[in-house]
Amino acid sequence: MTTKVTKRYLLNQSALYHCTSKRKLARVLQIDLKRLVGIVGDIPNQYSTITRPKKDSGERIVHNAHFELKRVQRRLFTLLRRVKRPNWLISGEIGKSITDNVRPHLGGTQLLKIDISGFFDNCSRESVYQFFHVQMAQPSDVAKICTDLCTLENAVVQGASTSMLIAFYANQSMLQELHELAEDNSLIFTVYVDDIAFSSSHSFQASDILDQATRIVSAYGFRVKNKKVRAYNDSRPKLLTGVIITTTSKMAVPNCKRRKILDDMTQYRRSTNPAERRSMRSKILGQISAAQQIEPDFFTGVKNQLKYEMRMDED
């Protein structure tokens, strides 16, 4: 099977670059101009709100765009995803996943990871506007519309298809400085949303890199989440974006995810409600498929058994 490769362009070759009028922007976004103006003029009412739990307690508010705005955001994302970006950016890139964020670090004996606190909440509307107005060379009225499509309440929208790439472009200068810090110290560097990772097969002073990275992040109005800073050496497993790097430089599923699947399987076996069993079976199959991106042979027997039971239910 041949995998289709999307051709990548320089930023100044994008259809969004130097888009000189609102009418031209509407054509590029494949929407009637009056509808586009109507949408951006009523942005607060173009979303419904979903609350999701955070892994480390607390809640995250996700804004779900209504159909028409979502379609325009998707078009904007399609145009942006065709632009060339640094290889060290993993999040928001088509065809890349958490395993692509881990793979470059597999050969490292040391790993330092930091988390930027409130990355989306503090990714300001002004920084997004500056991306469209300055880097994309759009006049102010066009840049304002593009900014309105990607932001809400003066920050990047969480949950929109555009969010990860827009967050990158709005903070590209900061991330580029962090990359230069890595290069200056011969370190491997990756970015996955707000997770920044430095690693090397040679010894380095993690505390010095952390201090310098913290100063860079602070200079841009962000802060490093101290409780999530982790420095690993080669004597113990490392956890990066939900993937374990073993002491033999292999990727492994974290034990907590294994336990969760086993607990769900126990609940599934105990259930006598057909509808509940179908729902739980689909959930567990999804969990196993996600885990198999990390470990291809993970729980293969369980997966096959669940698929067999699914076929029996359908007959």
Automatic annotation (TrEMBL):
- Source organism superkingdom: Bacteria
Q: Which UniProt keywords apply?
A: Antiviral defense, Magnesium, Metal-binding, Nucleotidyltransferase, RNA-directed DNA polymerase, Transferase
Name a single GO biological process: defense response to virus
> Any idea where the Reverse transcriptase domain is?
33-245
Residues in the signal sequence: none
Q: Per its record, what are the GO molecular function terms?
A: metal ion binding; RNA binding; RNA-directed DNA polymerase activity
The question of whether tRNA processing is a record keyword is answered with: no
| Pfam families recorded | RVT_1 (PF00078)
Family membership:
Belongs to the bacterial reverse transcriptase family.
Name of protein: RNA-directed DNA polymerase
